[in-house]
Amino acid sequence: MPAVDDVLDIKRAHVQAFVVHEIARTSASSARSRFLGVQQWLKWLVVEEEIDRSPAEGLSAPQVEEPEVPILTTDQLQTLLKSVQGREFAEVRDRAMILLWLDSGVRLSEVVDRTLEDVDLDMQVLHVMGKGSRGRAVPYGTKTAQAVDRYLRARARHPYGKTVEHLWIGQKTKKRLTVSGAGKLLARRSEAAGLGRIHPHQFRHTFAHMWLAAGGNETDLMRITGWKSRSMVDRYARSAGAERAREQHRKLSPGDRL
Question: pLDDT tens digits for 177-190?
Answer without folding.
Answer: 999 999 999 999 99
